[in-house]
Each structure stands twice: as C-alpha cells, then as structure tokens.
Amino acid sequence: MYNINRNYLKLPGSYLFSTIGRKSREYQSTHPEADVISLGIGDVTQPLAPAIIKALHEAVDDMAHAETFHGYSPDLGYSWLRETIAKNDYEDRNCDVTADEIFISDGAKSDSGNIQEIFAQNQRIAVCDPVYPVYVDSNVMAGRCGTYDKAAERWSDVIYMPCTADNGFTPSFPKEDPDIIYLCYPNNPTGASITKERLQDWVDYANRIGAVIIYDAAYEAYISDSEVPHSIYECEGARTCAIEIRSFSKNAGFTGTRLGFTVIPKEIERDGVKLHSLWARRHGTKFNGAPYIVQKAAMAVYSEEGKAELKEQIGYYKRNCRVIMDGLKEAGYDVYGGVDAPYIWLKTPGHMTSWEFFDRLLSHANVVGTPGSGFGPSGEGYFRLTAFGSYENTKEAVRRIARM
Ligand SMILES: Cc1ncc(COP(=O)(O)O)c(C=O)c1O
Most buried of the four, 4, 133, 147, 315, by CB within 10 Å? Predict the structure, then answer.
C-alpha cells in the first residue's frame, strides 16, 4: 500500500494569492461596475523587449531546419549563455565567478525551492520574517521544519529573523546558529536593499559558523544605490559560503518565458564534498535543460540593443515606484522600499491589520495589494504594493488611495 508524503499536510491552508484572488473576484461579482486595479501579484506587464522578440523568432526559425535544429540542451545550460553571464554579471563587476559555476534553469522559484535537496535532513534553516514563502514551504515538504503553530504562524524548527522598520528590514544575526541562511536582496516583499558592508557581515558570520547562505538576487536589476551590491560575490569570502540565485523574470520580463540560474562556487565544500558537484548531479538527474529558444532569448538580454531596451523597461517600473512612493508619502503614509526594488512596503494606517487594510483598499479605492502578514508574522501591520502595473493604472491607484 502506498503512503503519501505527510509533510505536505502540515502546510497551512489557503495560499496567500489564492485568497487575494478569491476576495477580489467576490468583490467584483457584487460590484460589477467597479474598475479594480491590481498592484498585488509580482508579475510584470510590459511586453518582451524588441531585441528579445527578435532573438526568439530567429531561434524558432533555427528549429525549422535540420542543420540548425536543437534537441535537448546541455543539462547545465549552453556554454555560450553561461560564458555571457559570467562575463556580464560577474567579471564586469569584479566578481570571481566562472562559467562552469553557473547552472541555467527554468527560473528562480524552482532553484530556490529545490536547492534544499542537497542538504541533510537535520539542517536548521534561518529565514527573514517576512519572507518569500518558497524557502520555508519547500523545506516543510522535505520534513525539515518541525510543527506549525497556527496562532504564532511559525514552524517549530525554523529560525525566524524579524525584519521591520526598526532594523531597516535587514535582520540581526539569530541567537541560535543556523546551518542554512536564506537572504533575498533587494527584498521581496519589503523592497529593502542591503549595503555591501552589512552583506559582508553576513558572509563573515556564515564562514565563522560554517553555514551556507542562499542568496536570492532576483531583483538585482532594480538597484540604483551605488552602495548596494549586485551580487554576494562582491563580498570577500563569499566563494566559501554563498550560493546565488538569479532570474530573468524581473530584469527582462521572462515571467512567462521562464529562465534563471544558480551560481555555486567550487570552493564551497563539506567533508571534502563540493556543493557544486551535488547540484550538478541533481540538475543532471532531474532537469533536462532549459529550452534552446529561451536561452537564445536570454543572450539578447546581454546584447547592446537588449541592454538599452531593458534599461528603459526597468526605468518604466521604477517610475511607477516613484509615483507610489511620492503619492503615498504626500498622503501621510509611512512607506519603505521602492528605491532598489519594485516593491513598496507601507505601514497600515491607524493600527489596521494587513487584511483589514486589504479590505478597506478594495472597497474604498478598488485597489488590490498584498497583505504583509501573508509573508510572515512580522509582516503584520504592513502592506505590499508592486510597481509592475501600467503607469496609467499606477497613477490612478495612487490617486484613489490618497483620496481614501
Ligand atoms: C524573491 C523571489 N525569488 C524568486 C522569484 C521567482 O522567480 P522566477 O520567475 O525566476 O521563478 C520571485 C518571484 O516573484 C521572487 O520574488
């Protein structure tokens, strides 16, 4: 008789975004005249840049002829893409990362969810609170987080590192030493960034206690502050303790096209075993390579034409950030983030809970956002708006919120 993985049953019910979707649909069905604007889910809205579309068309044409047809791609990615990433994202920023330390994948969600597989069952994970939920849920599925306390919204075996306005949304070192530390900067959901100095402290700490840092840099392209590192490998010693995860979703609009990568330096090892070889084995066994067409499209991200077009596209979303930040500040809200990340994190007014504010925003301004408490207990009393909407919708949403 087969048995199921009962760890899945421990996961608390309704997923944040399905609840938001249900509430929005219910509101719309009872108010069919309402023009509801969503600044909720972190999905992009601008079309793929022309250079990327051109590369996609050319790659599709390649697939039409036997001489240029491509079947399975190499498990770890085409060398031309890995070399281009190594040059542009690392060498040009004085980071020591080689092409064979880069693993191409179908996105940062898969990698950040799967990476826990190469670690032992008894590992203690530390996460920021609030947090991108994938880090915790993937460890719960693997049976690594203990039991869930519904009232406290916490797992017994997870080390939570609160990130609030008081600490500038960067955590302090935890009291107990973790084995695996998940950090995401620029941050989803708080929109905060981390200075190089502070990130260096984390790298030193991880090396000191023998922990590994999983550094999710999915929003790197939004950094504008020169003090903010684009990669953890800008820090000394990161090659012995840090894995970095990147995505093409938010820098190039690949949320529906799918591509990302993970960097594992060959220096990270435990008991003579390199994490690099474990991940290569895992990738080779469970992943059959990202599509040729999509990897070709990613090459266009690094072309001169592509870079210029994407700078403009990111500028478009960053303009939305400014509209939200300025408009809400003027309306008296306490707002955070929005400078190096496409997320604005605001304090709910009048001590409203995050969900109370959600309901109020939906009914009074017909705007949908994301309740901060959905990302962890320290997110209570906060609310996330994204800059990924159209400029017109963003302006209109802010106008309505300010009038509330
Ligand atoms: C922090 C973070 N990591 C990873 C992802 C997922 O990226 P991808 O689309 O590459 O799977 C997201 C998406 O919202 C995210 O916010």
Answer: 133
How far, in Å, is the centroid of ligand 1 from the Cα of 384? 15
Q: What's the pLDDT tens digit per position in 326-351?
A: 999 999 999 999 999 999 999 999 99
For ligand 1, say whether the CB of 253 is within 6 Å of any of its atoms.
no
What is the pLDDT, as a whole number, of residue 17?
Answer: 83
Q: What is the pTM of this model?
A: 0.97
What's the pLDDT score for residue 12?
A: 86
Candidate of 246, 247, 258 to mutate for ligand 1, largest count of ligand atoms within 8 Å of Cβ: 247
CA distance 121 to 128: 21
**How do 212-216 and 180-184 pair as beta strands?**
parallel
Burial level of 272, CB count in 10 A (0-12/13-18/19+)? exposed
Report pLDDT for 18: 86
pLDDT tens figures, 180-195: 999 999 999 999 999 9
Please state the atom number of ligand 1 nearest to the C-alpha of residue 249. Answer: 9
Atom of ligand 1 nearest to the CA of 247: 10
pLDDT number for residue 15 = 72
Identify the pLDDT of residue 388.
97
Index of the ligand 1 atom closest to the CA of residue 184 = 1
pLDDT band at 14 (very low <50, low <70, confident <90, very high): low
Residue 293 Cα to ligand 1 middle (Å): 21
For CATH 3.40.640.10, the residue range(s) in the chain are 53-303
Question: Cα separation of 139 and 124, whole Å?
Answer: 10
Mean pLDDT of 147-155: 93
Topology adopted by domain 11-47+305-403: Aspartate Aminotransferase, domain 1 (3.90.1150)
CA of 66 to the centre of ligand 1 (A): 35
Distance (Å, rounded) from C-alpha 37 to C-alpha 394?
8
Q: For residue 302, report the distance from its CA to the centre of ligand 1, in Å.
A: 20
Q: What's the CATH fold of domain 53-303?
A: Aspartate Aminotransferase; domain 2 (3.40.640)
Rounded to whole angstroms, the Cα distance separating 327 from 331 reads 6
Pocket lining: 132 vs ligand 1, CB cutoff 6 Å: yes
